[in-house]
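Why does this matter for the project? Reviewers at the last site visit asked to see concrete outputs rather than summary tables. In response, this paragraph embeds two records directly. Each consists of the residue sequence and, immediately after it, the corresponding structure tokens. Nothing has been edited or filtered.
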Amino acid sequence: MLNFPYPYEDELTYSILARASAHFCSFSHKTWLEQTLKNRCAIATLDFPSHLDELSKLFFLSKISSQDLICQHTLFPLFAPFITQERKDKCFEWMKEKSNGGTHLMSGWAAGRLPKLQSIRYCPMCISEQTNSLGEAYWQRIHQVAGLVTCTKHNCILEDVSDFNHKRHRHEYYRASTVHQTQQPRLSCNELDKRLTPFIQALLNGPERASPKYEQWTWYYHDLIHQSHCEKGQYCCFEAVMEKVLNYWTEAWLQQYNLWPIDTHCSWLHGITRKHRKSFSYLEHIVVLHALHDGKWDINDVLCEVSEIKVTKALVQKGPPKKTSQAVIRKAKCKWLKLVKKLGTKIARTSKAGGLYMWLYRNQHNWLIRLNKRYQRPIDNSTNRVNWRRRDITSTKLLIKIRNQAESDLTLPRHSKLWFLQQLPSNATIGKNLSKLPLTSRFLNAYQETVTEYQIRRLVRAMIYESNLPSWQLLRSAGLSEERMTDVTRKFCESHGLI
């Protein structure tokens, strides 16, 4: 595409498409998606965009690959070093093509404990500088990072875009140049932000490297705890690690990012100092590494060091002890057999005979597995915690109230099933259990707005508020063209002399 704008330093891919839509005077969000990403249903995502192979083809003069866009203009480099290589490769593949939200799941973003940003953030002084030097503003990556609340370049508190609603306009690219600064920048010198910023910038701008394995992270933290004198014999002294963490990071700051409490045995801090069975976020790693290194470390050096660790498995003695008599083994087998006949495998193991189960597992593994399969019983995991009948009636009443309030508002987006569900509290739970909510399902099927109804509502809104405009401008204001009109909408336009 000729004259397609090239990315600025640290600019989000979202911002590139937003600036380009202004340059090409695009008024229809879905038409713009079709022209650029070749998919009308793509979501305008701030952090992990998709269809980047198509976007990379638009840079006419200088070739910018989709890999460059991911590494230099998305937030994925914050998560990439801390997930396995297989997951990272899959995320790259999804971001280059169609992802269906898979990147958010596989990167750990969706299930992570870090709070999710609900708006676009910006530094007012950065926006002013960009406008003066470049003639336009853009959204920066570092301003969208969970963990930072100020721009350390200007010591200015980051502001939220007031009229941004991603749920309402999922396909719209909101331009930074449309931000209206109504108040003076709020200056603030945040010491914790200044401490974090170098590590965040190093991750965002660091070189592409292979991701370490979980075993390598386990060994690295084991050695680091030993070097930091936070051990108790062969094991980690968790109290010493927690004391070091609290010396550098306040309890209020940890609570702000859902990293508190850390003093329980099931906390993330316990998990990260033990054997790694899952990935941890960039903020969790930075918090622990900064504390154990006493503030003197470089994150790129740490990642290189972890990647170079050669994992060696400790030798574990297998098989039964040499002096275990056959009489003891027969007695244990008979005891376990009686239990599984009476209770079933799982209940016997969890309620009465955990120690016996572990002894047989270590000493008579094959016999135990064969026996357990024979006496395995189905377990009813269903619970009656939720009164679905009552929830069905409550949600239907709420939906009726929402519909009555929204009926006269012509400016709202299409009243689809998804839109109605998003207005409800606990909308994800209701959306996943519609089969148990017959009244709610019947309401959604009956009152969801069709495409034709939505098109006519947009036309009516334009005719009421902009009646003095020519017909072609009315159609543009309503976001319609003759190609996208349904038959009923076309007849409506013909009856009012619009086409």
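We now turn to the second protein, recorded in exactly the same manner.
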Amino acid sequence: MYALRAIARPATAALRAPRMAPRFAAMRFLSTRYTEEHEWVTFDPATKVGTIGITDYAQKALGDVVFVELPAEGTEVEAGESIGAVESVKAASDIYAPVSGTVEAINELLGDQPGLLNKSPTQDGWLAKIKLSDEAQFNVLLNEAEYKTLCEGQ
């Protein structure tokens, strides 16, 4: 018959889990609000930066986007003022700042790929990042349910 070879190390060694340093993941609670002009803002309270863009409803109404004009980084903007424009094969529409603050970044991909607004208006097609000067302006914008009701009525 066959003889089993004795294992040189104790059986408990195989059961030992490798030691790993504990890692803590910082959770970010982002929330999104909407305007009656069909812009969205996703706000990060940790950085006080809001990412803005146009909604899916707006991009469908515009049709194929062919040009996007964005504000320059560092520009101070006031809620409600025009900060750029979107042109499509059907129409042109101003982009309004949903909140006041300083433009921290713009989506430079839209210069070469304006169609990102049609393909991914709430992800890759974001327009600008604004450091809010007044967080209260974000809180008075429409929540998702209110925005959905607005769109259903149009």
